[in-house]
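Bug #2210: token dump truncated for ATP-dependent RNA helicase?
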Amino acid sequence: MDVHDLFRRLGAGAKFDVKRFSADAARFQINFFRNKHKIHIQGTDLPDPITTFQQLEQEYKINSRLLQNILDAGFQTPTPIQMQAIPVMLHGRELLASAPTGSGKTLAFSIPILMQLKQPANKGFRALIISPTRELASQIHRELIKISEGTGFRIHMIHKAAVAAKKFGPKSSKKFDILVTTPNRLIYLLKQDPPGIDLTSVEWLVVDESDKLFEDGKTGFRDQLAFIFLACTSHKVRRAMFSATFAYDVEQWCRLNLDNIITISIGARNSAVETVEQELLFVGSETGKLLAMRELVKKVANVIQQAGCPVPEYIKGFQKLL
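Reproduced locally. Full output below:
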């Protein structure tokens, strides 16, 4: 007699009230789903994950054009970080999310931002996204432009601080909605007298690749972030930090500075995304190493060009060095 036979005999004739245990059954299903997709979440009053993008239409009333843009861009099924981070942000919760590079973090914060802003409004910037490098900021900017096509949102990126001060300053028309930038350029504008940019209408402040920002001069960036936070004076402002690794410094800072935070991590902490193929290449000598690096950078540049995107400056820099 195995354990299943034992429980069947012990439970023979017993009657269970299905309604009484329906909530527990639903919670079990949700936890099973999270475990299946390696979604680890901590906090209180946790929103349930979504399983499809169509669910956003049924439960959260997503703009039909936005949903169609997402599907047309080839995003048929949400990734684990999107499954959980999107509903967390749609519930207005502050968030620290960690998922491997290539797991879809940009879409995980772009979709809820566009959904919560609903439509363009001449109130100035209502969402601010900070990225550690100009190349990453450009990538986020392109992604937002792509999925928001036809919705009317005005999405901007700071290229030159002097031009931005005239465009986004206190005398501007405020006909813009979302700003993507690096921290240094934003701080430069905020420190002008009067400030070269107004962040008093910001409802969502997202810091992407926050672990990288903390690595590059930890104390300095904390001071910058505090300065930016103080400039976002709206009572509606919510903050979300996304990173590829679950850095201790970032986690501690978030627990001290964010309100009723929810933390999400996907897979084993600080691991590479499963779709990345890792290969060990024996090169034999320093010359062989140089040749292998040159070939690798060339392949990366070709893939980027074939995707119809401009090759980042740092890739071109590598090509010149090699």
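Output looks complete on our side. The first helix runs from residue 3 to 10. Marking as cannot-reproduce; reopen if the truncation happens again.
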